[in-house]
Amino acid sequence: MRISGVKMAAGVGGAVELLSKAVVVNAAAGKHSATLLFLHGLGDTGHGWAEQLAHIRHPSLKIVCPNAPVAPVTLNGGFRMPSWFDIYSLDKTSKQDEEGLQKAAKEIHEILDAECSEPGMSPDRIILGNEIS
């Protein structure tokens, strides 16, 4: 497992720079031919997920678990915690953090683009997963 705080190439064991300035990467044990990009939930980090997912992975699978930036979350009284975007309310009709959602989506696309640019990788060999609570 590798934890990085700087921008790196997306090669085996590498990372791309995120808002959080940290990403956890479990390099493929064998020839890298597939990637799992897994996003943690509110208040969590990628560290624990990377560790747990490493126990069940295929040798050709690289696991990328980025850490969301720490920011105030309105729903939780402004408490600062890892969050991909602000959450104002659980009401489906409430205002959404469009700017935060767009920023998170851009970062996810950057990671996916970096993975697709690796030799031998194809978009159909990338899985995007997330924690559901």
From TrEMBL:
EC code: 3.1.2.22
SUPFAM superfamilies: alpha/beta-Hydrolases (SSF53474)
A GO CC term assigned to this protein in UniProt: cytoplasm
Domain Phospholipase/carboxylesterase/thioesterase, chain residue ranges per copy: 23-129
Enzyme class label: hydrolase
Pfam families with a match to the protein in the record: Abhydrolase_2
GO MF annotations in UniProt: carboxylic ester hydrolase activity; palmitoyl-(protein) hydrolase activity
InterPro entries associated with the record: AB_hydrolase_fold, LYPA1-2/EST-like, PLipase/COase/thioEstase
Family: Belongs to the AB hydrolase superfamily. AB hydrolase 2 family.
Name of this chain's protein: palmitoyl-protein hydrolase
Originating species: Geodia barretti
